[in-house]
Amino acid sequence: xxxxxxxxxxxxxxxxxxxxxxxxxxxxxxxxxxxxxxxxxxxxxxxxxxxxxxxxxxxxxxxxxxxxxxxxxxxxxxxxxxxxxxxxxxxxxxxxx
Length: 97
Hints:
The protein is an all-alpha fold.
């Protein structure tokens, strides 16, 4: 049987890691919106996307920037996924009440 509270605990633990990773205060964890989390992740992982897409960089440098771009996409994707899962768990808990 699905245990929303246990699922929420796990999700909060995972999301808290990303909150710390992107440099936000863990003590204010519950007050952050998804927009604040994504904006902080974007600021932390600034990648000169225009230079990569325009082909101004050659060889290995271009590969490094593509790697960084993929890391940024992964970071933001994980935050979005965990946020969505958190909202589902919270909804299940509220429905039980």
